[in-house]
Amino acid sequence: MTGRVIGLPTPPFVLPYQPIWTGFAINTVFYAAILWLLTLGPFTARRMIRRKRGRCIKCGYDLRGAEHEACPECGARCDGV
Ligand SMILES: [Zn+2]
């Protein structure tokens, strides 16, 4: 037995003791984007689809065919629909 543990680097090796700021920033943005996609992405996509189809973005009520300032179903403002 030589005393060497399999899987560990042999000395001399360098231990990181300071963050790598560019990697830290890139990882932060990357994982924030994934977190945003998983949590808020579906709601944003639903609002975009409803707006594209001429429906109320809050409740999905069909707003086509009449001019409304507010949704007659839920009362949400209908700007740009
Ligand atoms: Zn509505």
Number of alpha- plus pi-helical segments? 2
Low-confidence parts, pLDDT < 50 over ≥5 residues? none
Q: Give, in order, the helices and strands.
A: HH
Task: Characterize the main sheet.
Answer: none
Helix content: 25-40%
Q: Give the number of DSSP strands.
A: 0
Oligomer: single chain
Round the Cα radius of gyration to an integer and report it: 27 Å
Percent in strands = under 5%
- Tertiary shape: rod-shaped
Write down the overall mean pLDDT: 88
Overall tally of structural domains: 1
Description:
The protein has 81 residues and is an all-alpha fold. It has one domain (20-81). It contains two helices and no strands. The longest helix has 19 residues, at 21-39. It is rod-shaped. The model has no long low-confidence stretch (mean pLDDT 88). The structure holds zinc ion.
Quick summary:
Helix content is 38%, strand content 0%. It is mainly α and 81 residues long. Zinc ion (ZN) binds at residues 56, 58-59, 61, 71, 73-74, 76.
Describe this protein with a few key phrases.
81 residues; 2 helices; binds zinc ion
Topology:
Layout: H1 21-39, H2 41-52
